[in-house]
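re: ur question from yesterday

yeah so i grabbed the chain u mentioned. its 63 aa long if i counted rite. heres the sequnce exactly as i have it in my notes:
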Amino acid sequence: MTDDANMSMRKFLKQVGVTSQQAIEEAMRNADTAGKSFPVKAVITIDELGLRHEVTGEIKGQE
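ran it thru and got these structure tokens back, copy pasting raw so excuse formatting
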């Protein structure tokens, strides 16, 4: 993979991480999350490449 391709991928993934964390934190601030956990799913697609990548997990609320 070329340096340009690698850098553009890293830039995109950094943007995904930062903006997703901000959105999740805001949603959790506006909800009662005490003692709860929430299933979470992220999906990345590149239609032109036929890519659909899904990551699932769990985020715990405030204690």
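noticed a couple things. The longest strand covers residues 37-46. also Residues 3-60 form one domain.
anyway ttyl
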